[in-house]
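Re: the 247-residue chain
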Amino acid sequence: MTVYPNVKVNLGLHVLRKRADGYHDLETLFIPSFSFRDRLDIDYSDRFAFEADVQWKDDLTVRAYRLLKDEFGLPPVRIRLEKHSPVGAGLGGGSADAAFALRALNDMFSLGLDDRALASRAALLGSDCAFFIYNRPMLGSGRGEILEPFDIDLSGLELRIHVPEGESVSTGEAYRNIIPREPETALREILTLPASQWREKLENDFEQVIFPSHPAIGEIKAEMYAEGAVYASMSGSGPAVFGLFRK
């Protein structure tokens, strides 16, 4: 079975408070983007194998397989991952691979899990993994795993993503340096405003800690506005920056 995991961007990201378990409560709107798509092949096999053209420690796709294997006794499979989405860019590419693997395995072995059941398992793998089970605009809260469908019309806008070369942002560092805050206006209220008003109101809280140490990322955001973007922002904890342009 072959699937093509896509990426996401965050329309607004408020870090509200630090929790007793060490995570942070946040609110954000996840938006799927098809600017980058990986290729994930999962085939029946007599022994487990995982191959990828880009390797990194503790691959979420392997963890997704093991999660279902332990629960349902899945037989061995061969997984091949061809990466096209940038790694560690704030676009959720690794989380997407894991979520799409869960969906594919569910179909291959007729496990009968609906989206809610798959999402609950995806949330065990990563905070934004559950979003990719639904893969449509979803308002995220908690640590990002509590999801609510959100209607938003972006049909008149083109999404462009820029991933700066040579810039690497540690998510752990971003969270350590962030100062949680309760915004004056809830994210869902801001998102009901016309996109032309988002520039002054729709914020990604991580920009305040990332831009000073990575000025090139902030410059890309400024360049997008100079090129006519209606709205521009860093996605997640970066370094990817996206802009919304009128078609």
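DSSP finds nine helices and eleven strands in the chain.
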